[in-house]
Amino acid sequence: MTAVKDSVHDYISLDPVAADLVDTPEFQRLRHIKQLSTVRLVYPSASHTRFEHSLGVYHLASRALSHLGIEGEEAAHVRAAALLHDIGHGPYGHQTEDLIRRRTGRDHDEIHDLLDGSVVGETLESHGLDPMRVADIVDGGGGLGQLVSGELDVDRMDYLVRDAHHTGVPYGTIDHGRLVRQLRYRDGQLVLAEGNVQTAESLLLARALMNGTVYRHHTSRIAGAMLERASERLVDDGLPIEEFVRMADHDLLVALGERVPDLGNRIERRNLYKRAIWAPLSTVPADVVELDHDETRAAEHEIAELADITPEKVIIDAPPTPRIKESRSRVVVDGVVQRLESASELVGALRATERAQWRLGVYVPEVARDEVAAAAVEVLDLPMHVVSQ
Prior knowledge:
The chain is of the alpha+beta class. It folds into two domains: 1-168 and 217-272, Hypothetical protein af1432, CATH 1.10.3210; 273-321 and 358-388, Alpha-Beta Plaits, CATH 3.30.70. The chain has helices at residues 16-22, 25-28, 50-68, 72-84, 97-104, 112-115, 119-126, 131-138, 145-148, 154-167, 176-181, 197-215, 218-236, 241-245, 249-259, 261-269, 286-289, 293-307, 340-343, 346-357, 369-379, and strands at residues 2-6, 10-14, 183-186, 189-192, 274-280, 315-317, 330-333, 336-339, 359-364. The strands form three sheets. The chain has a four-stranded mixed sheet. The longest helix has 19 residues, at 50-68. It is globular. One of its GO terms (molecular function) is dGTPase activity.
């Protein structure tokens, strides 16, 4: 066993398969992709990477498998999937995921093509593991895929604790030790054992608190929207999408500075756009909330024309309507498996909180904020009080 010192889990022991996988180019690339992308523009110490997060997910998966009594080649495939679950991410992780999905039709957890004929795929085969089976587990396939990608997955358990640790906020603290010990399989479903409604609620609450203070901080959202727009222009300018997907964070930042300097240099120097509009869900027409990519671009052009500025300077940021995936976690209550949303009154309150925190943003250089705000109110049919001050 190879031991790795970790800031969250202390020592992580790597089995021979994991030790070899860590040395592959595909996994080493994760050293250069930050876990929290643009959040580090708000929390300076949030410089941790998907490399260390992936080691943490492997560690928790190994512990969970031990408590579940799963051994042999089945456990070996799950451990490998836990370690490799993030190798499909593009630069800046989730921040470029929508662009990659639109251009390739793939999500980051669809890694079948990446494992086919690659060094990491060959490494799996050299240890008697099936790369396609590992890819299926990463994508949530089969009963054990729930452990890597599901409502009670070890991915979520690690990133909440790790992100809280590195940002310095206390809200992501969960008892991941109890969570992995209380996992059970019943009728092909991953559930928490009897007496763990509050354990499941803690995961839900931690995610909700981290959303409000870390993951959806308005500064990070502005920088992320600028980064996505700049990346789209970079690909439109001729950069092959498959080359874009395999970039690291620093590669993308350099390319943006050279080829999309008006946005790339702003991102690098944290000279960000400002909020012209910051509108709660209750004030936004349903058709605006549901704007697709092309409709969003068309609305931006209309706002820009009305405000007499170039369309590239207007960014509409309409996040998906709030949903709490963790509310579908299954817990055993009085011997019966129930969804957490049925067993907990807290779920309803958190859903209401998520909706209350949702905001539509329209971002623009500060010099054009007033003109764009007035134009956005007209084009998007918004009340005047949502104009950001």
